[in-house]
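Write out the 3D structure for:
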Amino acid sequence: MNNTFSTCEAGSWTCTTRLCPKACSLESGAHFNTFDSRSYTFHGVCSYYLAVGDDWSVEVLLKSCPTGLVDRTCLDSIHLKTPMRSLEFKSNGKIISSQMGVSLPYISDSVKVFRKSSMFIQVDTSYGMMMLVQNSPTMQVYIGLIDNVMFRETGLCGNFNGIASDDFMSSQGLVEGTAAAFANSWKVNPDCDDVGNVIRDPCQLNTAVAKQAELRCAILRNSTAFFKDCHYLVDPYSYYSRCKQDACSCPSGQDCITETFLSYALACASKGLIFENWRKATDSQLVECPNGEVYSYNANACNQTCRSLSSVDLACQESGLVAEGCQCAEGLFANDEGMCVPAASCPCYVNGDTLKPGEKVTIADIPCYCREGQLLCSESKKEECTSPMVYVDCITSTYGKACESSCAIQTPLCLGRQCQPGCICPEGLINNGNGDCVKKEECPCQHNGLSYTPGDTIKVDCNKCKCYSGSWNCTELQCDSTCKMYGDGHYTTFDGQRFQFDGNCEYVVAQDFCVSDPKVGTFQIITENIPCGSMSTCSKSIRFLLQNKEIKLADGKYEIHDVSGSASKGSEEVFTVHTVGLYLIVKASNGIKLIWDRRTSLFIIAPPDKENQLCGLCGKYNFDMSDDFTMRDRSLSASALHFGNSWKASDTCSDVTDEASPCEMNPYRKAWSERKCSILKTDVFEACHSQVDHLPFYEACVRDSCACNIGGDCECFCTSVAAYAEACTSAGQCVAWRTPDLCPVFCDYYNSPDSCTWHYRPCGIVNTKTCGNPAGIDLGNFPHLEGCYPKCPAKTPYLDEHMMTCVSMDKCSCEMGSQIVPANGTVVNRDTCETW
């Protein structure tokens, strides 16, 4: 709860509110967390818009790290730009403005910069943005915004509208499917190459480091370890996973595990929980403070430098962004040499250190000199341009090539850019991103890494989008939303929040009994895992209660009952059941649909009229991913474990206290699991990699395959791969991945000896005519599903879903309760002796 502080009194929460900034961060050169709390990883190699406001922008330059076990990116510099000035923060700690060094504290009309500690620099602005720049041991950045700037921001930090599901909004106005496609759209320089999704797992390249990392990183997630008190506030499992990955790709001489501990400690501190002495408690490297400084876990060195004594107008603000590091002890001030001295020993400053008037300096081989506080440079050698490009200089042009328009960003934010001479497209033409000049109406559109020409139409969910002059124009239909679960407790909520929770009980996954009155509601969906090994799940039992009926899905079959428990034959008006491919489809009268693979995969599709009415493990369905971990008592948790435990259907079950790590408990299975699951990284799924991020599915596949330690190896593996294939299909990318040797589906089972009507389709279309639906099954805007599909001949055009055969209408079977009666067959009612 970012802006609230809660107290539990008599079983309910009492909350107070204060103005706190909502933060975006870029840590370890690749780990992003948006203003709306969506986390992702992107290894970019270019300059990108991190955040853009009405009249300011923050750009970050990412480069390949100089050394490391595998490819890894590092933050090289941060550029804050406003209409009046530009400030560049370098990874070596220097600050540049107008190509000249800046001494701290720095004060302007709208920006104030001072050193918060030995590790952090704080930037305060007059327009509601504040920033922390970490320089040691690596460069990281944290941006805070207060709520009165909501709905104005764009860039890699998202759009700050309280809806996490649309944070991957590209510069062309379309939500992208992967972090790479999203981030590539926000390049400052269109000439940079696009960066794809990272395929390699760094821990596979160094198993010795990986094993040590698992042991040391475990302190983040263990429920009895040092950070346990923060688990309710900040989810530790994402930091645990990141800790291992960063340790395996860490540049030589760098302690990346301690960096992750620092990030988690700062995240906890931003929620109000300061961990004093966490470095000593986690056996991390201690920071030795020089020159009489002391180390603080909640540092604020504002007005503690000698320069601050001369800058009496500097008003240090409480940013709400927590930092730590070395600072001078109370009563001492830092001079230019970094020594802490008493105020009596401090010199005085006027306008800081500058070049003397007329003093010359050479920058990038261009002679410059100082005059009237500005650095004036001679014109560089004119560049030869390829037609139709034209050359612009910095005498007749304000920005030159530094603010060139492109098809991706047609109106770039030029605030604070240093003029750069060079070749640009002439007036009336625009750079298409490939170095060619085109008319604006000829600009292509980008989506999920693919390029589309003007006039092309694509489908995004239930809406159609058409490319016009480099931007997408989309219909605004309200679409259904899907909650997904598969394997050993892998969930994706209606709003897109992924989490892992593998409980040993019945749990409420979705219901509309969500207000304080427990009687106000109409339906409830409950699931239970059915284990098949010491750590694995082979199937699910699902109960869907609506009105006075209940449908139960278990053991690959279904039964419909009255709530009293007696078998019911008159339930068609409440539940309609179909077999489509490998799946069983349940269509309820309230608009909810279930798609079940008869094992562990379950998809719950909710129509738009259920928005803001749902609760359970599938979340609230309000398009805000950040509050999906709302527990049964309506409080918000950061922990998937606490959230999941709160939705137990029975209080007799014990809570889950820790997330299992099957590959650590069954290390002999890890190599096999990684080898099998690597199919998700190969060319088989290459066309889908730009549409759907494969990494979460790969990690889930390895985990589940390690868990199947008592049989069911292929069951767990095949379910995980099928889950990624289904996600690809939903994104419009059909992948035919099954083979006779890899998770085969035997459709010949349904074929009679003299016919071959059943065939496997990786992405079948629901258009089969059935006995129950002679005109064809109508499921609305329904996804394509893999499985066995019949091609019924003209003489027997209808599929009998009970018998799974093609028949004429007069040969259709009947259903009475749970009993299937063939055509012309009879059944006797034992209670009334009636013959039907």
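The chain is about 15% helix and 30% strand.
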